[in-house]
Design goal:
alpha+beta, Thrombin, subunit H, six-stranded antiparallel β-barrel, 2 helices, about 15% helix
Length: about 120
């Protein structure tokens, strides 16, 4: 069984603006991929695994023929940090440890729509 088959929630390879805030830093980046329960992205700063973060995402969706962004704020925990050979940045995996159910559902709907039609933003 492959790793992707074990995942309970689908993961979408897409770039969504995200801001991570720790006790002594703020990092603005984009997701490399995202699921209902977490995200994987690049960071210019090393973040120690098990670090608690404030996570702010801007999820695009279509409303009245316009694309708008829904801000989702939640708590996250860094579960993995990997250096990228030849670069001064890191791949960081963050688990959403405390997210409102409606915000998790918004992420799920975004992923479903984006996977169904990758050429447009979800509704």
């Amino acid at each position: 069984m492959s790793l992707s088959e074990r995942r309970q929630h689908p993961r979408f390879e897409g770039n969504i603006p995200v801001k991570f805030s720790g006790a002594e830093f703020d990092i603005v980046t984009e997701t490399g991929n995202i699921s209902r329960t977490g995200t994987y992205c690049q960071s210019s700063k090393y973040i120690e695994p098990m670090t608690k973060l404030r996570v702010n995402l801007l999820i695009p969706y279509r409303r009245n023929k316009r694309i708008v962004a829904r801000k989702i704020s939640c708590e996250g925990i860094v579960v993995r940090t990997e250096s990228i050979p030849g670069k001064e940045c890191y791949n960081v995996a963050v688990y959403f440890s405390d997210i409102q159910p409606r915000d998790a559902e918004c992420i799920t709907e975004y992923i479903k729509g984006a996977m169904a039609n990758p050429n447009r933003t979800t509704e």
